[in-house]
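S.,

Sequence below, as promised.
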Amino acid sequence: MTIHQVLKHYWGYDAFRALQEDIVQSVLEGKDTLALLPTGGGKSICFQVPALVQPGICVVVSPLIALMKDQVENLKVRGIEAVAIVSGMSKREVDILLDNCVYGKIKFLYISPERLSSPLVQERIRHMNVNLFAIDEAHCISQWGYDFRPPYLQLAELRELHPKVPVLALTATATQQVADDIVSKLVFKKGFQIFRKSFERTNLSYVVAKEENKLKRLLNLLKKVKGSGIVYVRNRRETQELARQLVLEGIKADFYHAGLAAEVRSQKQDDWKANKLRVIVATNAFGMGIDKPDVRFVAHMDLPESLEAYYQEAGRAGRDEKKSYAVLLYNDADVKALERKLAQGSPILAEIQLVYHQLGNHFQVAYGAGEGLLFPFDVADFCKKYKLEPIKTLNILKVLSLEGYIGLTESVYLPSRLQVVVDYEALYSFQLSNATYEPLLKTLLRSYGGLYDQYVPIKEQDLAKRLQISVSQVAQMLTKLNDMQLIAYEPKTDQPQVQFLLPRVDRAHLGIDYTFLAQRQAIYQKQVESVLHYVNKPICRSQQLLNYFDELTKETCGVCDVCIGARKKHSEDALRFAILEKLRVEPLSIEVLVDSLHEGTEAARIELIRILIDEGRLRLSKDLLYLG
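The prediction came back faster than expected:
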C-alpha cells in the first residue's frame, strides 16, 4: 500500500495533517528527521505510516509507560501487531517478546530507554529487520530540556546496531537550544531535516487570573463554558476534595491520580471520554496519550513548574480546532510554594547519601549487590518510615536517577500473565498424577489460547468463578505450578518501581557531580522564572509562549485575557471620551445621553456613567447630567 492507502485503511483519514506527509516522506527517503509538532499534532502517525509501508519492524523509544501501552492497544485494535517491553516484566517474558520481534510478524516494538541499555536487548535488536528508530519525547535527551532523562543519552548506540536505519525524533516542546541538542546527541547524519509546525493554537484562549477564591472562579468558568474539561491540581488529596466540591455543586465530576487501582483509573478515564463525566480533577498523571478532541477547557489550580509542562497540559484542550480555554488560577501562596520547591531542589551531599543509604536498607540490598534488581516502591510509605520530607526526598531520588544509581518508573498496570513452559505430554502426565490441579489446568487450556507459545493475559477472578473456588486459592495453585516449573506465572502489578542500576555502594563512595547538578538547578530556576514572568506580565499569553519556544512574533492573539482586557480598556476609554465630549456641549438626561452614544452596549454605557458619577467626573441635577 501507498502511504495514503495505509492512512485510509488503518485510520480512516483521507489526507494527512500539516507537515505529517513531509515528515513521512523524509523518513522514507532514509533521512534523519526531527519533528517539532505541538500537543495534539498527530506525532504517532509520522512514524506508524512509514513503518507500515516498509518491510521490517519499527523500534519506538518512549519514557511514558502508560502512553506505550495505550498506543500498543490502539494498534492492535486496528489489526497491527505491536508489543511493549516495560518495567515489571520478567526476564523470560522479555526474552519471548524479543524473539517474536526477531522471528515473528511484529511491526512495532515499544521500549523504554532504560531497557535499551541491556546488552541482551541490544543484541536482539541487532538481529531484527529494523526499518525505523522513532524517538518519542525526544526533548528528554537534552539537559537543557524540562524533563532530561540520562538513559536517553545512550540512544546514539542504536545507530551502531543498524547504521543505515534512519532516526525520527519527535517532541511537542522544544526551544531552539533543545532542538539543536537533540540533533547533536542523536548524531544526525548529513542531509537531515527538521520540520517545525507553529506552536500557535489559534482556537485556544489562554487566561491567567490571580485569585484567592479559586473554587468560585472555577465554578464561574464551568457556568460560562459548556462541554468537558480537565482540572489539574497539585496532589492526590486535592483531586478528591475538589471533585467532591464540584459534585456538591451539581457537576458530574470525578478524581484521578496514579495511586488508584488500574481498573479504577481505566473506568474513570473511559467515563470521561464517553462524556458520562463532565470534569476530571487530576494530578499531572492524567492526560498523556488520551485522544479526546472535544475538551473545551483545561484549568490549572496551581502554578506549573515549567512553561513546557504547562503548554503540553493546556494543549489537551481544543484538539478539534474549536474554541477552547486554558485557564491558570494562582495566588501569592502558590508563588511562595513554587519558590520553596525551587529552594529544596538543591540537596546537600549528606542528605543525598542518607536517602541512598536508607533506600538500600529499605529493600535489604547488600553492598556490592543489587545491580538490575527491581522493587515495587511507594514513596509516601518510604518517607513515612524513615521520617523524610517528601518533596526533598523526591528531588534526591531524581538526583540519584540523574547520576545513574537508580531508575524510577511511573505507576504501571500489568495484568497477570501465564505461559506453559513444558510440552503437552509432560503437562498431561502431571494432570493424571495430580488430581488436585487437573480442573485448574483444564480450565486454563480451554479458556486461553496460545499458552504453549507465549505469555497470555489471564484473570484469576474468571478462573475462580468457573472453578467455584476463591481468587486466593487460584493464585496459590498457580504460584505452586510456577515453583514446580510447569508454568511461568506473573501476578498482576500496579505500582511505581525503583531499580538499582548499579551495585550498591557505601555512602562514603557515593559520587555526585555537583557541577552538573548546579547546571540542572540553574535550568530549573530559569524555568520557574519563566512561569512567574508568564503570569505577571501583561503581555499577550500566546505571544509569550511562542517567544519562549523561539517562535518570535509581535502579533497578538486577540483572544487571551490580556488581549481581551486591552480591547475592553480601549473600548471603555473610547466610551468615556464620548460621554465627556457630549456633556461638554450641553447637559443631557441619562436616557438621551445613552441613546446618543455609538460606543459600547447600553448596559456598558449606563455602568460607566454610574462610575463617572462615583468618581466625581459627572454630577446629576434635576434629571440632567453635568460635567463634575
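The longest helix spans residues 561-585.

Coffee later?
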